[in-house]
From TrEMBL:
TM stretches of this protein: 35-61, 67-87, 94-112, 124-150, 170-195
Keyword terms, alphabetized: Kinase, Membrane, Transferase, Transmembrane, Transmembrane helix, Two-component regulatory system
Species in which this protein is naturally found: Microbacterium azadirachtae
Protein name: Signal transduction histidine kinase
Signal peptide start-end: none
Keyword Transmembrane listed: yes
Statement: the UniProt record of this protein carries the keyword Transmembrane: yes
Gene Ontology molecular function, alphabetical: kinase activity
Length: 408
């Protein structure tokens, strides 16, 4: 495989805007959120387990209010750990834990023991200050994260001093705890913001690159089509017209007709390599089956009716199938497939007829713009190219497209 082929295949596997949802397009952002959730889960497990052990060790008597505070904060903590592991509901459970911890922190001075408190022994609620900080990083916008990183440690320091009745021994230890949690909290918020910014930058750059690539590919396709059609008009259509103008004998006229038929076929199939087909006979039943397959691909449940038998040359079957497909597509696009019916009728060895009808509001074929090739090229030109005929009858009661081919 060459380098160019590998690059093309890689680009083809990249989801492009419009083909996928926004969730899939923010690939780096989603992966970074998953990484942050895992890191938060590991940190919350370590600090939360330390807080839980400390709470159980220092719980000397069964205090209902103290047990209630532990349940309020540790149950959401456990739920957040489970969600971080599973990668689902992380933001919700982290937000619930943050609110539960804030409630416990505000109630701490009224529930905690104020007697025989040792200043150098941090209470279990201290170990959860930064756990609440990383929960805010996961659950809330950047403003809330910064606000908690700045205010949360001071709230803890205040309630800790209240527990110690603002004793002198508590000020030094509490100041150290507050400064430590303040610095660590700001570092965690800064890291979360930095990693998310990098991921968003990667996603934005990727989106711009894919958009530029799509625009360049579209421009190249348009230019390629323009060159192909120009070459076709010059080499085939113009040559056929010149041959027809100069034809003076039956042989020259027959040759000009063959050239014109080939040019019309190539023009009708300008969007893909022309496959004119052969003169090998194709059964009418195969053409009907091909149209049934086309109807199924469009998600329609109508039945393609087939009457009579016979066979037509392969090139004729190809042209009639493509023209009928275009007529069916027009009925779906412009008449919403109302009353859509497809009938294939074989006339033995003499010919074939295909009718595509609908009961839409109809249109005036003479008013179709010259740049609309759905009828002129895909239906009329295709049938003319194989020596067939195509008629379009349309009024306010509906539209009937009749494709016919006869050996005569």
């Amino acid at each position: 495989m060459s380098a160019d082929q590998g690059l093309r295949e890689a680009w083809e596997k990249i989801p492009t805007p419009g083909e996928v949802g926004q969730e899939l397009e923010r690939f780096a952002g989603r992966r970074m959120e998953r990484i942050i959730a895992i890191v938060v889960g590991v940190g919350a497990l370590a600090l939360g387990a330390q807080a839980l052990v400390t709470a159980l060790v220092t719980l000397q008597v069964v205090d209902a209010s103290h047990l209630t505070m532990m349940a309020v904060v540790f149950v959401p903590w456990l739920a957040m750990l489970v969600c971080c592991t599973l990668g689902r509901g992380v933001r919700l459970t982290a937000g619930i834990f943050f609110v539960a911890y804030l409630i416990d922190l505000l109630l701490w001075p009224f529930v905690a023991n104020h007697k025989d408190v040792v200043p150098t022994e941090q209470p279990w609620i201290f170990f959860l200050v930064n756990v609440a900080g990383v929960a805010a990083v996961v659950a809330f916008p950047l403003g809330v994260q910064v606000a908690w990183a700045l205010v949360g440690p001071f709230i803890y320091g205040t309630v800790r001093l209240m527990q110690g009745d603002f004793g002198p021994d508590f000020w030094i230890v509490t100041a150290f705890d507050v400064s430590f949690t303040l610095i660590l909290g700001l570092v965690l918020v800064a890291l979360g913001w930095m990693f998310r910014s990098v991921a968003n930058g990667v996603d934005d750059a990727r989106g711009r690159a894919v958009a530029l690539y799509t625009e360049a590919a579209s421009a190249e396709a348009v230019e390629h089509e323009r060159v192909a059609v120009a070459a076709l008009m010059h080499d085939s259509v113009l040559a056929a017209l010149i041959a027809a103008e100069r034809a003076g004998t039956d042989r020259e006229r027959a040759l000009a007709m063959d050239m014109a038929r080939e040019a019309l076929t190539r023009l009708a199939n300008a969007e893909a390599p022309a496959q004119e087909g052969s003169d090998e006979p194709v059964e009418v039943e195969l053409l009907a089956e091909d149209l049934r397959h086309a109807v199924t691909q469009l998600g329609l449940t109508i039945e393609v009716e087939q009457f009579g038998h016979g066979a037509v040359p392969d090139r004729v079957a190809r042209a009639m199938a493509l023209a009928a497909r275009q007529a069916i597509g027009n009925a779906v696009a412009h008449a919403s497939a109302r009353g859509l019916a497809v009938v294939v009728e074989g006339h033995g060895d003499t010919g074939l007829t295909v009718k595509v009808s609908d009961t839409g509001s109809g249109f005036d074929p003479s008013q179709v713009g010259a740049d609309r090739l759905g009828i002129r090229a895909s239906i009329l030109a295709r049938m003319t190219a194989v020596g067939g005929s195509a008629t379009i009858d349309s009024d306010r009661r509906g539209t009937v497209v009749t494709l016919g081919w006869s050996r005569t």
